[in-house]
From TrEMBL:
Domain of life: Bacteria
Protein name as catalogued: NAD(P)-dependent dehydrogenase (Short-subunit alcohol dehydrogenase family)
Signal peptide: none
PANTHER family in alphabetical order: SHORT-CHAIN DEHYDROGENASE REDUCTASE (PTHR42820), SHORT-CHAIN DEHYDROGENASE_REDUCTASE FAMILY PROTEIN (PTHR42820:SF1)
Similarity field: Belongs to the short-chain dehydrogenases/reductases (SDR) family.
UniProt cross-references to InterPro entries, sorted A to Z: NAD(P)-bd_dom_sf (IPR036291), Sc_DH/Rdtase_CS (IPR020904), SDR_fam (IPR002347)
Pfam families cross-referenced by the UniProt entry: adh_short_C2 (PF13561)
Length: 274
């Protein structure tokens, strides 16, 4: 994309101090948006914001724990004070560090604190950010709210049960917002993300192979591919889309559960005749 699609817009991106959120911040800024780079990790947020400013963009680093209503209210107030408006909210922050992943397992082995943390950050955090940003958008008469969700939030799997439930909740939260504020110019959508390689969370090669076998694309996703989709939802080009969950997952959720095993079988027998 070479055209600057977000000139004059202001975007709040949570969890933008690292991972996919950082790339989204960088790419939205390339399209002309001013970015509030919010994260619980202030050093990460500052470094992402500094890189944007160095490239000639506008960015404000904000330290905010999205699970705290006080912190979220302060984040929104600081953004409005600096940039005067908020056009885009990307609810990207999630608790995904290795301690959380190790504790968030199948239900019988669930660490209840991990369950509470997933709900507090991933779901309550997204609700709080929406609660405080939407009034700003209502005053303007427009805005685009966006949520990061996952295949885990749509289909059953063997582990990460708290993450999965929180992401299912996020997809519903998006639809509630679309229904409640659509007539006042607010759109709300979710992106169901497939496996996007994140240097912060390297996966064991065996797991990458299993996941790649179940994506229909030649490769797993890149942060830039995801950021380009966020740009689309942030821009007026998506103005007739609301209440939608878009699977940006290389086809991961679009095929039969047996497909990858069948591919191996057909290769072994040398034919796809059933
Ligand atoms: N990477 C993938 O393949 C993938 C797949 C599906 C969905 N997603 C979703 O995309 C989003 C980004 O994922 P990622 O891979 O970049 O993860 P990440 O762990 O690299 O980034 C998450 C960011 O959120 C921040 N954060 C954590 N707790 C916070 C809190 N309480 N308040 C504010 N910020 C907080 C972290 O500091 C971090 O910068 C998440 O919502 C995730 O569920 C990612």
């Amino acid at each position: 994309m070479n055209i600057r699609r977000l000139e004059g817009k202001v975007a709040v991106i949570t969890g933008a101090g690292g991972g996919l959120g950082a790339e989204c911040a960088r790419v939205l800024a390339l399209h002309g948006a001013a970015i509030a780079v919010a994260d619980i990790d202030m050093a990460g947020a500052e470094s992402v914001a500094a890189a944007i400013v160095e490239q000639g963009g506008q960015a404000l680093a904000l330290c905010a724990d999205v699970s705290s209503e006080e912190a979220v209210a302060a984040m929104v107030a600081a953004t409005v004070e600096r940039f005067g408006r908020i056009d885009v909210l990307y609810n990207n922050a999630a608790i995904l560090n290795s301690a959380q992943r190790a504790a968030d397992r199948d239900i019988c082995n669930m660490d209840v604190n991990a369950w509470d943390r997933a709900m507090a950050v991933n779901l309550r955090g997204a609700m709080l950010c929406s609660k405080h940003v939407i009034p700003v958008m209502l005053r303007q008469g427009n805005g685009s709210v966006l949520f990061a969700t996952s295949g885990f939030g749509a289909q059953g799997d063997l582990t990460l049960s708290a993450y999965a439930a929180s992401k299912a909740g996020v997809a519903m939260l998006s639809k509630s917002i679309a229904a409640q504020y659509g007539k006042q110019g607010i759109r709300s959508n979710a992106i169901q993300i497939g496996l996007v390689e994140n240097a912060g969370h390297p996966l064991p090669p065996e797991i990458k192979t299993i996941l790649l076998d179940n994506h229909l694309t030649p490769a797993l996703g890149t942060p830039r591919q995801l950021a380009d989709i966020v740009v689309f939802f942030a821009s007026d080009e998506s103005s007739f889309i609301t209440g939608h969950t878009l699977a940006a997952d290389g086809g991961f959720s679009s095929h039969t559960p047996s497909m990858a095993a069948m591919r191996g079988f057909f290769e072994k027998v040398g034919s796809n005749t059933l």
